[in-house]
Amino acid sequence: MKKIMVILFFLILAAPNLVGKALKADVLTEEEKEMENRQIREFPQISGENWQEAPAMVEEYINDHAPWRGKLLDAYASFNWDVLGSVDNREVLRGKDGWLFYKQDDSVEDAIGIVIYNESHMRQVLERLLAARERCTDHPDQFILLIAPNKEQVCSQYMPESYKKVTDTSTAKELVAYIREHSDIKVVYPLEELKEAAEETGINVYHKTDTHWNEAGGFVGVMAIVEALGEEAVPLREVEIQWVPDAIRGDLAKQVHIPQAYIDDPYADITPWVNSPEAAKKRGDRENRRIVVVGDSFRVGLIPGMNWYFGDVFMVDQPFVTKADPDLLKGDIFVYEIVERCLNDLDRFDRFLAAVSQETP
Q1: Sign of CA pseudo-dihedral 182, 186, 190, 192
Q2: What is the pLDDT of residues 174-188, one digit of tens each?
Q3: H or E stretch including 91?
Q4: Rounded CA gap, 357 and 40, in Å?
Q5: Would you say residue 253 has pLDDT above 50?
């Protein structure tokens, strides 16, 4: 009897998938799998060691491969967006005018000013940065810490009205002040530069439905580095930006399954301008210097501006530093980039220090 009940249980679970296959229903496409932002379950390998967990594992597989899953999730997201005016995801916050924000890693708390570093943590971060600077460059004055501001800080005017600032401080502001007071490390935190550039030009410097800055915002970040080097920056208003009409379906939109038709976020393209004779005149003869950038995904938005201003640029994602040729990590300028919401992760600084030391983290 127990065996029959188990068989019936699996048949009930599999019924929608069997019907879907019979009707040749759609399953998740590669794009939809990417939108899930996680590993889609494969059929479990059941053994004598895990047989007790088999029903749960099979259920997870069936759920992930259910027919019409992508369309149903899109429909559910559309209902929440149109009818309820919200998104059903604990990690994503719906703002004004179609903007989405990230709620994890204290991003929202930082935006309203209720998360502050403690001195012990700041001291440990500084110790690791000083040790990393000693290992990765022979020119300490050419080592730069670039903190990419959270979108929630730069574009706070699009946050819901209920999210009002409590204080004017933040994790990044506290850390920047501490590093500058206790060391000579150059720290670039272009929060005000980004806000001023956006206000002055009326241009979005971050993607509406993504956590990252766009190429316009990345250019402002590069120019903040230029100013930290004691050189004259080019303001964003002098950059010709071409807006590609194809809307970017950002990582936050994918996470909450917002359909493409709902996205209004053209792509900011500055590549034609950085390759123009006008841009070459503004750059002058600075293109011979080599700059090395180790960072996270925010480094991608820096690429057009970096390639224009410095010419010889080497960028690497932090986890892959140990696989890079050590000679490639040598340059006239070394930039360590980290997004603001990861400043609380001391392990990340440990991994950076181990990476530039060519050690196993």
Answers
A1: positive
A2: 999 999 999 999 999
A3: none
A4: 35
A5: yes
Helices 2-22/54-64 angle, 10° precision: 10
Residue 213 phi, psi dihedral angles, 5° rounding: -75, 155
- Model confidence band, residue 81 (pLDDT cutoffs 50, 70, 90): low
Q: Around Cβ 150, how many Cβ atoms within 10 Å?
A: 28
Contact 237, 198 (CB under 8 A): no
pLDDT digits (tens, 9 = 90+) for 223-238: 999 999 999 999 999 9
Distance (Å, rounded) from C-alpha 104 to C-alpha 100?
13
Q: Contact at 8 Å (CB) between 226 and 186?
A: no
Q: Helix (H, G, I), strand (E, B), or coil: what is residue 127? A: helix
Q: What does the pLDDT average to over 208-224?
A: 96
Better-scored residue on pLDDT, 286 or 141? 141
Residue indicated by tokens 């393209």: 269
pLDDT at position 23 is 45
Tell whether the model's pLDDT for residue 277 goes beyond 70.
Answer: yes
Average confidence score pLDDT of the chain: 82
Q: What is the C-alpha to C-alpha distance for residues 229 and 237, in angstroms, rounded to an integer?
A: 21
CA nearest to 68, candidates 76, 60, 80:
76
Task: Please state, in angstroms and rounded to a whole number, the distance separating the CA atoms of residues 133 and 186.
Answer: 11
Contact 251, 232 (CB under 8 A): no
Distance CA 42, CA 33 (A): 12
Q: How many CB atoms lie within 10 A of CB 350?
A: 14
Q: Is the alpha carbon torsion for 310, 313, 317, 319 positive or negative?
A: negative
Token pair, residue 299, equals: 């480094």
Q: Would you state the pLDDT for residue 148?
A: 98
**Is 213 within 8 Å of 232 (Cβ atoms)?**
no
DSSP sequence for 156-184:
GGGS-TT---S-S--HHHHHHHHHHHH--
Helix, strand, coil percent content, the chain, rounded in steps of 5: 55, 10, 35
In this structure, how many other beta carbons lie within 10 angstroms of the beta carbon of residue 334? 25
